[in-house]
Amino acid sequence: MEETSETLDTYLDNHYIHRSNWLRAAVLGANDGILSTASIAIGVAAATDVRDPIILATLAGLVAGALSMAAGEYVSVSSQTDVEQADIEREKIELEEMPEIELQRLAEIYEKRGLKKETALMVAKELTEHDVLGAHVRDELGINELSQAKPIQAALASGAAFTLGGVLPLLVALFLPLKNIEYFLYGSALIFLIILGIVAAKTGGSGIGKAIVRITFWGTAAMGLTALVGYLFNVI
Q: What pTM did the predictor assign?
C-alpha cells in the first residue's frame, strides 16, 4: 500500500501543471531580463559610438528592471492572496450560518461534473465530514495548492530570473567589439530567447516550434523599434 502511494505521488509530480506557478514567473522574468536590457543596449548603441553609455544604460536597466519585476510581482500576487483570504473568510461564515445550503451547493458542483444526484450528495457529505472548509475552498472557490498565490516566491523567482536574463546582454555589451555592437546584441539576445523558449517549452510540455516563433517575432519587433529610436535620436 505504501509503495502504491509513493508511485501515485511520483505520477502526480510528473504532470506539467505542478510546475505552472514557478515556471510562469521564471520564464516571464528571464524573458523580460533578456529583451528589456538588450533593447535598451541596442537603443543606446544605435545612438553612440562610445561603449561607456551603453554599459551604463544596460546596467541601470538591469537593476531597475529586476527590482521593478520583483516588486510588481509581489504586489500583484499579494492582491490575489488578499482576495483569496477574503473569500475563505466569507466561506467560513457561510458554513457556520447555513451549513445545509452549503452542503447542497457542494453536491450540485459534483453533480454538474457528472455524478448522479445521490452519489454527489454522498460524496459531499463524506468530504464535509473529513474537511468541510477544505472541500469548499477547493471545489467551490477553486483554490488549491497549485493555484494558491505565494507572493514572496513569485517575487524572488521573477527578480532572480530577470537578473539572470539581463546579465547576458550586459556581458555582450562589456566584451564584444564595439563596431556593429547593436547587431551582436540583437543576434545574441535572439539566441538567448530561443534557448529560453526551448527550455520553457520542454519543461512545460508544450510545442517548441510555436515558442520559438513567438519569441523571435516579438523579440525582433521590440529590439528593432528600440534601435529605430536610437538612430532617430543619434545625439550621444
A: 0.68
